[in-house]
Structures are given as structure tokens and as C-alpha cells.
Amino acid sequence: MNNNFKILNFKKMVIMLLGMWLLFSTTIITLFLKNPVEKAVIKMVWGLIFLWIIVCGGLMYFFRNPIKNIVLKIPLPWYIKFVFFTIILAFIEEFIATTMTNMAPFFNVKIGDAYITASTNFWDVIFFHSLINFIGPFIFWAIVLKYYDFSPFSAFLIWGTTGILAEVLLGGPRHFLEFGLWMFVYGLMIFLPVYSIPSAEERKAKCPKFYHYFLMIFLPLLFVPLFAWIPLIIDPNHPQPTHFN
After folding, report:
1. Over the range 1-25, which residues count as b (16 or more CB within 10 Å of their CB) and which as e?
2. I want to staple 142 with a disulfide (CB 3.0 to 4.6 A). Which of 79, 101, 202, 230 is the partner?
3. CA 201 to CA 170: how far, in whole Å?
């Protein structure tokens, strides 16, 4: 019991430190920005932080047990429910982010001058730019969870770290400083789905080795092409990386 209490306190401390860095770093950036476009972008980021991380993240945490009970009762194989659950949460996050991009006039700039998504069209964003790239990794996670018992907290940190690396690969090393933001943005897509799957005993899953945690940061990226090729076939001339360049 004492050991469980220490683990719980450790998890809370990690989340608190990540949250403190997120709020501190975003506040510092906000205070020093002068350019109207940059100020509009940071306001969009604040909107994403509030709606996705604070509101949605808070609801996911405080209602995790009732949600888990509902998910477990759905008469489908757990791995299918897991993949669909992660997709739904990614949908919600991208909907919020796209809404922020569309609020550019509210932040005193024209649409296209400031943005945090590749397009103002939600379906375009998820099908050509973001969610389409997540489905393969989510399927890979479902396969791995059949054999290895990654906790919801470790999945949050691992997928969050994968998200940080993805953002760095797409946008450059400066995104390393935004690790608090990306850890929550990506980690919250997978925390509750992992929490809502059957126990390790029911899945016959074993405890991961230390190197499995490291491998799971990188291996899901190999599964991005599983579905990412589809929009390239449909529209090979689709604007990349954004519609605003």
C-alpha cells in the first residue's frame, strides 16, 4: 500500500511539473511577443491548452472510471474499441485546434496569417495532414498492448514523447522547448483508451522490459505510412505542409 502511494505521488509530481513548465513557458513567450501574428498564434495555443488539456484532460481524468465501465460494456473486441477510442480523442483535439485557426479574425489577424493547423477545413486537416498519420501507430499500440502491459501513465508519457519527436521532425528543434505542450496534446489521446482496456490478466499481457519503453517511442512512427499513403493517391498535389504557404 505504501509503495502504491509513492507511485501515485510520483505520477502526480510528474504531471504537475509538466503542467508548470507548460504554463510558465507559454506565459513567458506570451509576455515577450510583439508581432500581431505571433501574438495571435500564442492566443490560439492558449485556447488549445484550455479546451483540450485543462477541460478535456480534466474530464478524462475525473470521469475515467465511469468511462472505463461504459467502454468495457461495449460488445466489441477490446483492441477495436481501443483504436476507435484513440481516433475519437484525436478527432476532438484536432477539432479544437482547427477551431482556433478559424478564430484568427477574433485575434485581430486575417485567416492564413496566423494558424496552428494546416488548414481551416477540419476534414482536410484530419484526412490530409494529421489524424491519417496517427491511425497506423494507434493500431500498432493495440497490437503491443495485447502482449505487454503498459500502464496508462507510461503510455501517456511514451506517446507524448513520440509526439514531441514528430513535431521536431516537422517543425525543427525549437519544438523541444515546447515539450510540455506536446506531451499533453499527444499523451491525452492515449491515456484514457489504455485505462479503458481489460486487465493484463484478461489480456494475458506481461510486464514490459525497460527497453520496451524506449522502443515504443520510435516504433509507432514506422506505422505512419500504413494509412498515410491514401490521401497521396487521392490528391497527389494536395498542399503540403499547409494551405497557407
Report:
1. eeeeeeeeeebeeebeebbebbeee
2. 79
3. 39
- Cell readout for 121 is 477545413
Q: How far apart, in Å, are the Cα atoms of 226 and each of 55, 231, 232?
A: 32, 12, 12
* Backbone phi and psi for residue 205, each to the nearest 5 degrees, phi listed first: -95, 145
**Exposed/middle/buried for residue 156 (C-beta within 10 Å: 0-12, 13-18, 19+):** buried
Q: What is the pTM of this model?
A: 0.94
Based on C-alpha coordinates, what's the Rg of the chain? 19
Burial status of residue 170 (CB atoms within 10 A of its CB: 0-12, 13-18, 19 or more) = exposed
* pLDDT tens digits, 115-135: 999 999 999 999 999 999 999
C-alpha dihedral (155, 63, 56, 146), degrees to nearest 10? 30
CA–CA distances in Å: residue 211 to residues 88, 171, 191: 30, 28, 20
Number of H helices, E strands in the chain: 12, 0
Q: Using an 8 Å Cβ cutoff, are 180 and 156 in contact? A: no
Q: What is the pLDDT of residues 139-178, one digit of tens each?
A: 999 999 999 999 999 999 999 999 999 999 988 888 888 9
Nearest to 138 by CA among 53, 211, 52, 224: 224
